[in-house]
Automatic annotation (TrEMBL):
It comes from Flagellimonas pacifica. Belongs to the aldo/keto reductase family. Residues 30-264 form the NADP-dependent oxidoreductase domain. The keyword Oxidoreductase applies. This is Aldo/keto reductase. The lineage of its organism: Bacteria, Pseudomonadati, Bacteroidota, Flavobacteriia, Flavobacteriales.
């Protein structure tokens, strides 16, 4: 198992880039004061990883929050994603430039294809490989790619994606997909770790939280990391941002992890990568 030390700790990607394994997600954080405040609070508390996307419409605020924090740009791992409407070779290059401009950054640490779009994603990936070769991105990856999407992409890819960001929580573990990614050197990452708030209703997690004297959220986030899965819980509230990160003073036992794994029921709270219409 990889070492989990503190909030600034990292997992190493296949190309040697060190990606902080705990970050702030800003999905649904409003551009302007809300997202600026969340990013500043997170960075000033010790977070070193911020995850946004062009479709979130808050890249401008994310960039401002980074600039207004007490942390140097080089110490922040910034992630964004190309949206479905922008997929394709030339349109991806433009979408990337637009994201950089909104963020007011010179480069991204990680750029992801947001959703699999078949042949179009192959052209998108070709553009991302070019941006990577030009050192405008430190790492490239995908989001919401099932095994067959990855296998299809790899028929034409020159570079294996370094990250796959997936819906991941106690009701959707997808251990076979994790194993496939691991075998290919693809780092697994979680979105929606809290099951859109539904984790707080699970009695097994309440019991674990009581036993470890932690919150249910902290139990889930610790489980993510012990599974080797990078996690980016989203919040715009300072207290929650700080509380989410308070997971480095305890450890789940092997039995605890197995118990949480056993809750898996293949249930999604977000869109199905095999059946979405956007």
């Amino acid at each position: 198992m990889r070492t989990i030390s503190d909030l600034k700790g990292t997992f190493e990607l296949s190309n040697g880039v060190k990606m902080p394994y705990f970050g702030l997600g800003v999905y649904l954080s409003q551009d302007g004061n809300e997202v600026i405040g969340a990013v500043k609070d997170a960075l000033n508390h010790g977070y070193r990883h911020i995850d946004t996307a062009s479709i979130y419409n808050n890249e401008k605020g994310v960039g401002a929050g980074i600039q207004q924090s007490n942390v140097d740009r080089k110490d922040v791992f910034v992630v964004s994603k190309v949206w479905n409407n922008d997929q394709g070779y030339e349109s991806t290059l433009k979408a990337f430039d637009d994201s950089l401009e909104r963020l007011e950054l010179d480069y991204l640490d990680l750029y992801l294809i947001h959703w699999p779009k078949g042949e179009k994603s192959k052209e998108t990936w070709r553009a991302m490989e070019r941006l990577y070769a030009e050192k405008k991105i430190r790492a490239i990856g995908v989001s919401n790619f099932m095994q067959h999407h990855l296998e299809d992409l790899l028929t034409t890819a020159n570079i294996v994606p370094m990250v796959n960001q997936m819906e991941f929580h106690p009701y959707l573990v997808q251990e076979e997909l994790i194993d496939f990614c691991h075998a290919k050197g693809i780092q697994y990452e979680a979105w929606s770790p809290m099951m859109q708030g539904n984790v707080f209703n699970l009695p097994q997690l309440k019991e674990l939280a009581n036993r470890h004297q932690k919150t249910v959220a902290q139990i889930v986030l610790r489980w993510d990391l012990q599974k080797g899965v990078i996690t980016i819980p989203k919040s715009s509230k300072k207290e929650r941002i700080i509380s989410n990160a308070d997971i480095f003073d305890f450890e789940l036992s092997k039995a605890d992890v197995q118990l949480m794994d056993s809750l898996d029921r293949g249930q999604r709270f977000g869109p199905d990568p095999d059946n979405f219409d956007f």
